[in-house]
Design brief:
The protein has 265 residues and is an alpha/beta fold. The chain has one domain (2-262): Purple Acid Phosphatase, chain A, domain 2 (4-Layer Sandwich), CATH 3.60.21. The protein is built from ten helices and seven strands. The strands form two sheets. It has a four-stranded mixed sheet with strand order 1-2-6-7, with no helix packed on it. A three-stranded parallel sheet has the order 3-4-5. Helix 1 (2-18) runs antiparallel to helix 5. The longest helix is centred in the first third of the chain and has 17 residues, at 2-18. It is globular, with a radius of gyration of 19 Å. The termini are far apart.
């Protein structure tokens, strides 16, 4: 049985590296036929993978906590974000992905730090009620890849009794170094998976602000392409790098074109 599962895992890893499964998040929003930013109301709106912010208010950005719970808590403390939202202030918290997965080249002060951050975000959103929508967690490439790997493992029979064994086999496979980057699979629960897989991908403000984890998308022709992005657009948004950092990365002119197409500045 173990040998059969390992063969399946190794076979599927090639497919996972070649392409990423796209998860729909449209259940939380009604279908909206929109081609331009101006077509959206001037209020907080979730449309598929896209979040629209109004042209007023203050946005506090945080990103790439990678399990560093003390950094996340420091961000909350310095911004007084939860208290401000709860008291009715016109503020938003916008987390740009990569909350999860420990970087193996860095010290890990709390092995469960990323799980605690995810749960704290979810708890705060729930405790704030309708105001909790102002605490926005966007998907990063680590949320995307870790949920894909977790889904693959579950599909191949992973449960509490064999979880460590199957993940060890995955880490020892030919693509082991790739999957070790997404080590939240060691701690992820089904509930956390359901939450992470439904995170939005990009936020656009009515004032032209654009917030996303990694890059712009030369393949997106208009803002409608961000609602349910195809695989190419999704990969560009979550895995992209600027040309100064990576050969073949997006350029300044491509960024300008992208912003013009979606109504950003």
């Amino acid at each position: 049985m173990t040998i059969m599962i390992l063969r399946k895992l190794v076979a599927v890893t090639f497919l996972l590296i070649a392409c990423s499964a796209l998860f729909s998040t449209g259940a939380d929003s009604d279908p909206i036929q929109i081609k331009q930013l101006a077509d959206y109301p001037n209020q907080l709106t979730r449309d598929g993978e896209l979040v629209i912010l109004p042209d007023h208010g203050t946005v506090y950005l945080g990103t790439d906590f990678h399990g560093k719970l003390h950094y996340f808590e420091q961000w909350l403390k310095q911004t007084a974000l939860i208290e401000q939202i709860d008291s009715g202030e016109d503020v938003y918290g916008l987390i740009l992905g990569d909350v999860i997965d420990h970087k193996l080249t860095e010290s890990i002060p709390d092995p469960d730090g990323d799980a605690k951050i995810v749960d704290q975000i979810r708890h705060s959103q729930q405790q704030l009620g309708i105001k909790g929508k102002r605490l926005i967690y966007l998907k990063g490439n680590h949320e995307l890849a870790a949920t894909e790997a977790y889904a693959m493992l579950k599909k191949n029979g992973m449960d509490a009794s064999n979880r460590k064994q199957l993940i060890d086999l995955l880490y020892k496979s030919a693509q082991g170094s790739y999957f070790r980057q997404f080590n939240f699979i060691e701690r992820m629960t089904d509930e956390q998976y359901d939450y992470l897989v439904n995170l939005p991908v990009i936020a656009v403000g009515k004032n032209g602000m654009v917030a996303v984890h990694a890059g712009t998308s030369p393949s997106a022709m208009n803002i409608a392409d961000l609602v349910h992005p195809n695989q190419t657009v999704l990969n560009q948004l979550l895995w992209g790098r600027p040309s100064i950092a990576m050969a073949g990365g997006y350029t300044a002119s491509q960024t300008q074109t992208f912003l013009e197409r979606i109504g950003g500045t």
